[in-house]
Design goal:
Strand content of chain B: 25-35%
Strand content of chain A: under 5%
Bound molecules: adenosine-5'-triphosphate, magnesium ion
Largest sheet of chain A: none
Largest sheet of chain B: 6 strands, mixed
Oligomer: heterodimer
Radius of gyration of chain A: 18 Å
Order of helices and strands of chain B: EEEHEEHEHHHEHEHEEHEHEEHEH
Order of helices and strands of chain A: HHHHHHHHHHH
Structural class of chain A: mainly alpha
Strand order of the largest sheet of chain B: 6-7-8-3-9-10
Number of domains of chain B: 2
Shape of chain A: globular
Number of helices of chain A: 11
Number of domains of chain A: 1
């Protein structure tokens, strides 16, 4: 209970902090419009109205992913630049509990991007928002956000452990969009990408959302998404313990 | 005796890689074997010149750095192996204006850290109100930190460091950038913390502050403790000396070396105080060096000349000078 309260309060705190950044405000308004437009023009050719909604959901998932990759992936770096990393690490908690509120906030910002993309799609392009499973959709969206928060923890620690993380991060964005089938159906990618895609929680999250909009069995995909995320969270938590020790040994918690 | 802080043979070496084509590793031996014990409720001062290793020592004690060698315990818990137990019991305040969430208010910041540091939900409101009162930020708590002055940020740091009522608090130059009245309040706060049983480890560059507050002081330079004792004991190091203070304008740089060589002179230093320079000459109490010193400063415009008993600062200067002579 106490931990849940801390996670929730921490998430709201970091959401509030990000929402006050002039940079983030720009991307809050602009990015969803761009994504909605992208969805419409990329897919209008194929234009059955049902496809259009799917495309908008896919584009929205790209927003979720960007926010997890750049926000959560860079979470530790960001705190270091702000000079707040040392004060965070002094909390008498497991490192994963210190960073989870931050990556969850990023997941929530992503979910906003998804909903805003849909809203703009409705307002600007008249995309019909008739969901195949209107009740499963919000559940799927919530689980996907949580799972992205968990996945973000794994990324955050890997980005610290891997040198040249920034280049790595930029290189990762498009492949994962493709791999997790946010833009293209997985079936149209080369066969070797299949196992990689199947291992990413984003694949199953995107799939659950697509099924909730266009029809299909939502719950198995969502279940897989949750399970893989739990594994990511566990691995991320272990990696973070290692990251923390390494940073204390190498004196990299403070901005030198 | 039950100690709040124990350190044995603490060392810390920083390795950094420089150069790109031909990378070279440079090593800085920041702390070279520090032993100290601080009793519960004691107010312990760590003094030393810039780069002496004070912050490094503090960061090893508060778990932010792993020592290269040696061990340390806080309230009996090992700083490397029992990190969480240690963190539950310590607070950390550093000087400077970073380390806060700028775009949010002081209240937001305090609420978040209270939650993160495990202050029980039902106590948070009361505790935060008390601390805002203590650091005199009541009424300003709903303003964003980015609009705060340096001193206000510093006071907010202090409030944050005390949120979870730590048993041991590390204050690394807490009075930096704080105005004289606020600095006096801060000293009262620190004294009060120690009086109510909190152990305080304080670093400062203000001798008067250390003299007034500290039960014991360690003077550290070149990563080693050069002297350790009560302020009175440290002052005794300058016993048998007298201090000559001369206000002057335009002292030539080579004059100090000559002064140091005069018979009976132990230390000579010069300090800028606005327009005027103050030459401080420590000599054996039985030697009257005034005439010799003034003769050497012939041609320099001289203001007031005073002869006085040594202070803690004079003792400090003597200790540091002796240490750097040994190192050289
Ligand atoms: N992260 C770091 N990497 C490399 N060297 C460092 C690092 N931090 C400190 N040092 C070096 O270690 C030495 C001791 O530094 P430290 O910050 O402990 O001094 P200090 O006594 O706190 O000084 P000050 O009074 O200026 O705060 C200095 O030579 C400094 O340059
Ligand atoms: Mg320092």
């Amino acid at each position: 209970m106490k931990t849940l309260r801390m996670l929730l309060m921490g998430m709201l705190f970091h959401l509030k902090h990000s929402s006050r950044s002039p940079f983030e405000i720009g991307s809050f308004v602009v990015v969803p419009i761009v994504q909605a437009t992208l969805a419409v023009y990329l897919f209008r050719a194929a234009a059955e109205p049902q496809k259009l909604l799917q495309a908008a959901v896919g584009a929205g998932m790209m927003g979720v992913w960007s926010s997890v990759l750049f926000g959560a992936g860079g979470a530790i770096q960001m705190q270091r630049w702000q000079g707040t990393l040392e004060m965070l690490m002094l909390a008498p908690r497991r490192p994963v509990m210190v960073f989870l509120p931050i990556t969850l906030a990023n997941g929530a910002m992503g979910s906003y991007a998804l909903l805003a993309t849909l809203a703009w799609g409705r307002v600007l392009y008249g995309i019909e928002l008739d969901f195949a499973h209107p009740f499963a959709f919000p559940v799927a969206a919530l689980v996907t956000v949580l799972s992205l928060g968990a996945f973000g923890i794994l990324l955050a620690s890997l980005f610290i452990l891997v040198r040249h993380a920034n280049a790595f991060m930029n290189a990762l964005e498009y492949p994962i969009w493709l791999l997790s089938g946010m833009l293209l159906p997985i079936a149209s990618l080369p066969a070797w990408t299949g196992p990689i895609a199947a291992a990413l929680p984003t694949t199953w999250g995107a799939r659950a959302l697509r099924e909730a909009t266009a029809g299909g069995a939502v719950w198995p995909s969502l279940g897989l998404c949750a399970v893989i995320s739990a594994v990511c969270l566990g691995l991320g938590a272990l990696a973070l313990v290692h990251v923390e020790r390494k940073a204390r040994a190498a004196a990299t918690l403070a901005l030198a | 005796m039950d100690y709040a802080i124990e350190a044995e043979g603490l060392r810390r070496t920083y390795r950094s890689r420089t150069g790109w084509l031909r990378p070279r590793t440079t090593e800085v031996h920041a702390v070279r074997g520090v032993d100290l014990t601080v009793g519960r409720g004691e107010l312990f001062g760590l003094l030393g010149p810039n780069g002496a290793g004070k912050t490094t020592t503090i960061k090893m004690l508060n778990t932010l750095l792993i020592p290269s060698a040696g061990t340390a315990r806080i309230c009996g818990f090992d700083v490397v192996k029992q990190t969480r137990e240690v963190r539950r019991r310590i607070g950390y305040v550093f000087g400077g204006d970073r380390g806060l969430y700028e775009r949010l208010t002081a209240l937001d910041n305090l609420r978040y850290f209270a939650e993160l540091y495990g202050v029980p939900a039902r106590d948070q409101k009361r505790r935060i109100a008390e601390l805002l009162e203590l650091v005199k930020l009541t009424g300003r708590e709903n303003e964003r930190v980015e609009g705060y002055s340096r001193g206000m940020r510093q006071r907010l740091h202090i409030a944050r460091g005390l949120l979870h009522e730590p048993e041991v608090i590390f204050l690394d130059e807490p009075s930096i950038g704080v105005d004289p009245v606020a600095a006096r309040d801060l000293r009262a706060t620190v004294a009060n913390l120690a009086a109510t049983g909190t152990t305080v480890l304080l670093t400062t560059h203000y001798m008067a502050e250390a003299d007034e507050l500290c039960d014991r002081i360690a003077v550290i330079s070149e990563g080693e403790i050069q002297a350790l004792g009560t302020p009175a004991e440290l002052r005794h190091r300058a016993d048998g000396r007298r201090v000559l203070e001369i206000e002057a304008y335009g002292v030539p740089t080579d004059a100090l070396e000559d002064l140091q060589k005069l018979p009976g002179v132990r230390e000579a230093a010069v300090e800028e105080r606005g327009q005027v320079q103050v030459v401080t000459v420590q000599s054996d109490a039985d030697a009257d060096v005034q005439a010799d010193v003034l003769r050497r400063l012939n041609g320099v415009r001289i203001g007031r000349v005073t002869s006085r008993e040594p202070t803690l600062e004079d003792a400090y200067v003597a200790i540091i000078a002796a240490a750097s002579r040994v190192a050289a």
